[in-house]
Design a protein that fits this description.
By secondary structure, the protein is of the alpha/beta class. The chain has 12 helices and 11 strands. It has helices at 14-18, 47-59, 73-84, 99-103, 123-128, 144-151, 201-204, 218-228, 235-256, 266-279, 282-289, 299-310, and strands at 9-13, 25-29, 63-66, 88-92, 104-111, 114-121, 133-137, 160-162, 167-169, 176-181, 209-212. The strands form 4 sheets. The chain has a 5-stranded parallel sheet with strand order 4-7-10-3-11, covered by helices on one side. A two-stranded antiparallel ribbon has the order 1-2. GO terms for molecular function: ATP binding; ATP hydrolysis activity. Residues 9-34 form the Cobaltochelatase subunit CobS N-terminal domain.
Length: 319
């Protein structure tokens, strides 16, 4: 059911809620609905990206977050929204999402024993009329016909013309639009992101705010990993996590230098920590978490990285 009334909101200082040195006030819903993401109390915010997202919420600016995989772009938006009690709908623009999924289509239903054809609105017109933050995930993987539908929402007034319903839909005052992407519309240059498209630059220009979420500093990343694995919060555990983060940093440096074609994201490190619970051995968990998906010719390089970080061979099981 479309919610047409404006729910109760209050203005909150981002300095108090997010610890950012800014006088910005941002709307926050007083009541929490089912579509509000759950708060992750251990989440570590990037101040610059957080401020960009908050500005998007406060002033209805179309905001795009760019960065490599595993940096937490989508979850960053969701965790900001969670603390604002702002409902979210996250849509992945993969190859299975069609233009009809966005705009709607005719459906056949039974009324009084007769078949009737009715138009059922899609994701865009339905979301547009609600107080919701619509997040387009993997924005640079969207198909061209899908992207041109979205382009209407990027105009200044954000109105959507529904030819199927023969009407113009104005956005709800508390509708917000965000997206995430890996390549800023440049396509699959690095070879890491098969399926991404070169974005229409006129459409890219319509995004009001573009922020980049990079990999965090080793210390910051280690804190995030530790927050996900509190059982390692001891001297040996913290040293282990520091070594794992160092290993991930070496893969990123090796990728940047062209030595290897795959790198470890923070998400991969978290998976490695989780798998360590099951496999008990740091080398075995590393194989299942990352090494087995790497090119065979690159494995000696990764083995050398592992030796440098852990002072042991990957196949040494006396961990």
């Amino acid at each position: 059911m479309i919610q047409n009334h404006i729910p109760l909101t209050t203005q909150i200082p981002v300095r108090d809620r997010f610890g950012i040195d800014s006088d910005l006030l941002v709307p926050s819903f007083i009541e929490k609905s089912d579509l509000v993401p759950s708060i992750d109390e251990t989440y570590q915010f990037d101040p610059e990206v957080t401020l960009a997202i908050l500005t998007g919420f406060a002033f209805n600016r179309r905001t795009l977050i760019q960065g490599m995989h595993g940096t937490g772009k989508s979850s960053h938006i969701e965790q900001v929204a969670a603390r604002l009690n702002w409902p979210c709908l996250r849509i992945n623009l993969d190859g299975h999402l069609s233009r009809l999924d966005l705009i709607g289509k005719d459906t056949i239903s039974l009324k009084d024993g007769l078949q009737v054809t009715e138009f059922k609105s899609g994701i865009l017109p339905t979301s547009l009329q609600r107080p919701i933050a619509l997040i387009f995930d993997e924005y640079d993987a969207g198909k061209p016909d899908v992207m041109f539908v979205i382009q209407q929402l990027l105009e200044k007034d954000g109105k959507y013309t529904s030819l199927e319903q023969n009407k113009v839909i104005s956005p709800h005052p508390l509708f917000r639009l965000f997206s995430t992407c890996n390549t800023v519309g440049l396509g699959n240059i690095s070879g890491l992101y098969s399926g991404t498209q070169i974005l229409n630059q006129s459409q890219l220009d319509r995004w009001n705010i573009i922020a980049t979420l990079n990999y965090l500093s080793p210390n910051h990343e280690a804190k995030i990993i530790l927050s996900k694995a509190p059982h390692l919060d001891n001297d040996n555990g913290r040293q282990l996590i520091d070594n794992m983060v160092a290993m991930a940093s070496l893969t990123r440096q090796g990728f940047a230098n062209g030595d290897i074609s795959t790198l470890m994201s923070p998400r991969t490190v978290i998976t490695w920590v989780e798998n360590l619970i099951f496999f008990k051995h740091i080398g075995t968990a590393f194989k299942y978490s990352f090494l087995n998906r790497c090119e065979e010719m690159e494995k000696p390089i990764l083995t050398e990285y592992f030796l440098r970080c852990f002072d042991q061979e990957i196949d040494h099981f006396n961990d």
